[in-house]
């Protein structure tokens, strides 16, 4: 097996995962769309734009050539934004054999089609058996991974062999990797938690307390699970690392760009201004739009996502959205259980 790994692209998460692979003894090619950024990384040994305070491992080499990045790589890790995944995968088609261990670590849906990332990749890379594609998710901020704070993630694939191969490439003493066969659940949980993180930031920006945030996380997880199961996910996945684990870290951490975006909106800033100030992809914004469409497609009730959609895209005042959430008709906490059990046993 080749000891070379390719990581595409050189954002904060891609750079952190490149560092994990390098720490495991692999040669890592880190692809950037920008020649200037690639040259700067190689010269300064720092990704100044995304992780400016951490010196990169000597075995990481950046390049702006996609062909050079993946040539001879046994492990290819896609970390492109959800809106760019199809374009990057399409460019890879003539460059990969289909024998590589192919993993993505992107949390979102394709905006136009609402497809999960493994479906997008499978369509653009027919030389790969779709059952062998791997999705990586879990509570893992790049800022902590790159300085080797203890972190646990999950890799999901319909092929146990493919999941374990990805696990072998990535696992080490500070980056623990679990396997999971539920690709749908892992991808849906990883995408939808960003919506709740926006809500958590908004709640904090409004000055609400811990009670509100606890309620938001709990009811948000119920929404994520409802939609995920309607899409074919296994319910237990949402109690794991990709579900509640990632939800907690994204909704409570200062590193979370989705939380920061929500916080700015809660303080009265306009969405466009917040995104302009951050100058980074905030996946939760596009995912909120996707979730509204998916909820309608699958007939799933998602009141938190619906209210966030109104705030983000229709100018609804955040406080009015909270009032509407709190003023809804009374219901049973475990709606599905209450409907199916028929008793208070």
TrEMBL record:
Source domain of life: Bacteria
Signal peptide from the UniProt entry: 1-18
PROSITE patterns found in the cross-reference section: NAD_G3PDH
Coiled coil regions in record: none
Upper taxonomic lineage: Bacteria, Bacillati, Bacillota, Bacilli, Bacillales
Pathway(s) annotated for this protein in UniProt: Membrane lipid metabolism; glycerophospholipid metabolism
Pfam families from the UniProt entry: NAD_Gly3P_dh_C, NAD_Gly3P_dh_N
Keywords: Cytoplasm, Lipid biosynthesis, Lipid metabolism, NAD, NADP, Nucleotide-binding, Oxidoreductase, Phospholipid biosynthesis, Phospholipid metabolism, Signal
Spans through the membrane: none
Name by which UniProt lists this protein: Glycerol-3-phosphate dehydrogenase [NAD(P)+]
Gene designation: gpsA
Catalytic reactions of this protein: sn-glycerol 3-phosphate + NAD(+) = dihydroxyacetone phosphate + NADH + H(+); sn-glycerol 3-phosphate + NADP(+) = dihydroxyacetone phosphate + NADPH + H(+)
The protein's Enzyme Commission number: 1.1.1.94
An example Gene Ontology molecular-function term: glycerol-3-phosphate dehydrogenase [NAD(P)+] activity
NCBIfam families referenced in this protein's UniProt entry, alphabetically: PRK00094.1-2, PRK00094.1-3, PRK00094.1-4
Enzyme category, top tier: oxidoreductase
Job of this protein: Catalyzes the reduction of the glycolytic intermediate dihydroxyacetone phosphate (DHAP) to sn-glycerol 3-phosphate (G3P), the key precursor for phospholipid synthesis.
Limits of the Glycerol-3-phosphate dehydrogenase NAD-dependent C-terminal domain: 182-323
